Amino acid sequence: MKEREKVFKELISDNEHKIRRVCSYYAHSEEDRKDLYQEILINVWKSFETFRGDSAVGTWLYRVALNTALGFSGKEFKRLRFNVDFDSTRLNNLGCEDKASDAMVLEHKFALLQNRMNQLSVIDKAIISLVMEGLPMREIADVIGLTEPNVRVKVHRIKESLREDLKGGDYDC
Are 172 and 166 in contact (CB under 8 A)? Predict the structure, then answer.
């Protein structure tokens, strides 16, 4: 096997879970997720030789995956739905504490949060998906192409907006 292919396979193997999560955020059906996954692999392969190492390989991979996901729906990407599987670890990255113990209340809280997240702009969806992945602000800035202080401000505003929209009753976040 050629060295390039070996390194590529290792890169994909080491980061498969990251790529699949990006696919799950930005594709509705299982078939769309499979198609998006393949599209990301193609784009990673095409740009693999031009990776200069200016950033961490994981950051570069997220950037390729995110750009592919945003372009996947073509001109429809502004209406792109953001899909989040219920995962308290990911929600904790948003600063949501689990105050409700009842499963139905928690499920409803999650549905409200996901609905509100789908109303975010494309760039805010991208930023919040990386926050949910637990990436540091510096890496998010590198992936998105903004300055780190700008990303910090955006994250703060997104979180505050989500908290405000979900305020009230047992659904405070």
Answer: yes
